[in-house]
Amino acid sequence: MENCQQQKYFLSTFGCQMNVHDSEKTAGILEKIGYSKAATVEEADLILLNTCCVRENAENRLYGHLGNLKPLKTKNPELIIGVGGCMAQLPSVREKIAESYPYVDFLFGAYNLHRLPELIAKIKETGSRILQLSQEEEIVEDLPVVREDPYRAWVTVIYGCNNFCSYCIVPYVRGREKSRRPEKIIAEIQGLASKGVKEITLLGQNVNSYGLDFPEDERMDFADLLAAANRIKGITRIRFQTSHPKDLSDKLIIQMMAAEHVCEHLHLPVQAGSNKILEAMNRKYTREYYLNLVEKLRAKIPNIALTTDLIVGFPGEEEDDFQDTLNLVKEVEFDAAFTFAYSPRVGTKAAEMKTQVPEEVKMDRLYRLIEVVNQQAKAANQRLEGSSETILVEGPSAKKQEIFAGRTCSNKLVLFPPKRPSVELVGKEIKVQIEKGLTYTLRGKEID
Ligand code: SAH
Ligand code: SF4
Ligand code: F3S
After folding, report:
1. In 10 A of CB 178, how many CB atoms?
2. What's the predicted TM-score (pTM) here?
3. What is the DSSP string of 25-89?
4. Omega within 30 of 0 (cis) for the link into 242
5. CA end-to-end span of the chain, whole Å?
6. Which of 53, 173, 244 to mutate to test the pocket of ligand 2 (most atoms within 8 A of CB)?
7. pLDDT per position as a tens digit, 49-69
8. Could you give the angle at which helices 182-194 and 222-230 cross, rounded to 10 degrees?
9. Which of 145, 338, 350, 358 has an alpha carbon 20 to 30 Å from 78's alpha carbon atom?
10. Strand stretches in 313-383, DSSP E
11. C-alpha distances in angstroms, 284 versus 84, 166, 310, 337?
């Protein structure tokens, strides 16, 4: 009887947009081999966790989650559980899962998702665990993708990272930079446009390195790729992330300015405001370089929204260095920032540094930083009061069905009471007048 029913999968995703997009591919692959999405974890025949290890709390969440799955496996021994994503790339995690979580059936890597059908079939056939990852060198193209949002899509342009910022585990778990062929990227975006997608976000750990790994005579850089994407009919908004400040070229700034559909928003992680810390982080730029870059961007694209990532409590960070970060945030007046307390990652250079900052000092600095970031964000949003903005409507807001939400090209979330709260509004670009700027959102009203 069991086999006659359609098998169901449940997929949990942690971490960054790269992982979110990998999960969309994972869902595509599973649906192609006959699985359908389970409404709850309890009704699943296959549970996959797509994990992140960028900070310790991300890692702990996996173990918490795995603990919760044990009773399900006891109840249903046929249940298959797999762990993929960045944590699965770490030998220490693989050992821990092998020893302490015997009910995990298999591990899978971000770069060999196409092997999932084979792995699942093998486990069903043999019943034995598969804890080795096969290492793929080539990018596998044309995987099926299940996208949740019909109007906005992620498109990977480059995999991996070569930068080795001293705090960061990503280069160890995602490998070296590998650019996708431009013709594959363009064809994917054309396909999306033909299905009604309006907004794309080009993804990479550092999109500015795009194309540098191609042979000299086939060189195409990120600015060229943006220009090509800008010419695709039907795509009205182009975003990209993440940009490493050291690689953001003048050519790209000019291209952003010239390309009609490229949004006036840039996520430009600065990480710290002190030159001593930036050097220890191996970021390869100075505070002065970053401020100069911001000035150049604002001169060319006056209403550009700037967002960033900040780390406090990096080894050796003194109160003076932290003040440099606070001052930089005040000087730039970011529209928003993700703020993190430094989390040591085994295997990275910074984890070995002797000058680790006590946890309570990190937390104290984090709260002080968040306060300044929030003040700046609110002030930036208040400056928009009275202006009119075009938003792409996403649908009813998370809290109230009758209030709708949409995003400006500068990536700000606007909440508004629609004249007619109808699903027809979703995916449409409409004009709103901004009435109030708050810390995380804007309130507006629909105008004709
Ligand atoms: N490739 C992107 C994103 C990397 S991870 C980039 O270069 O910006 C996202 C953010 O997590 C980083 O920008 C950094 O601010 C933060 N991060 C990475 N490793 C960290 C660590 N060990 N502790 C705290 N924050 C970290
Ligand atoms: Fe990590 Fe730095 Fe690479 Fe970003 S650029 S993924 S922070 S090593
Ligand atoms: Fe996490 Fe991997 Fe992304 S470690 S932040 S999911 S690249």
Report:
1. 15
2. 0.95
3. HHHHHHHHTT-EE-SSGGG-SEEEEEE--SSHHHHHHHHHHHHHHHHHHHH-TT-EEEEEESGGG
4. yes
5. 57
6. 244
7. 999 999 998 888 899 899 999
8. 30
9. 145
10. 336-341
11. 32, 11, 16, 21
